[in-house]
Task: structure prediction
Amino acid sequence: MPWGRKRFHQSGQSHFITFCCYRRRRLLNTELSRRTFESALERVRRNYALCVYGYVVMPEHVHIILSEPRQDTLAAAVKSLKQGVARRLIAEAEHFWQKRYYDFNLRSHWQFVQKLSYIHRNPVKRGLCARPEDWEWSSFRHYANGMEGRVEIESEWTARKRERAAGTLCSAIELPHSSQNRA
Result:
């Protein structure tokens, strides 16, 4: 981590995480590699009991908004995610990921919305698609229409689905993480 930067874990806040492929090579440029990443993210979500609020898989980096895990630490979860992807996609004696990751604590609803919009617009900004809904490897479609993908996204859509399944559908609710508490 760069000098002067400090990570704040066990804060109860959501985290905006970014990490890159080694030397920004386009190692996530195929459908297989992006699906492998999504499968690994879903595995980590379940194993570490964390919530994924949004993500995008770009050709040479990823962005994820997630909660702190209820099991172990955020650093352990990110390490498991990166190692799981690398083991499945890397050729021997090569590097897949840069060593570190960028972690930004989301302290307000405004920051949460800003980062979620940023990650969903990233493929459009980079010229990979014309509209956010055209990029299959992100959480945008879930937020747009509740579409379920390879990674379970924690949102009002998901909360409503759980309520319907339990027979306890009630009025609108706020998500439990601190990033959505309005300042």
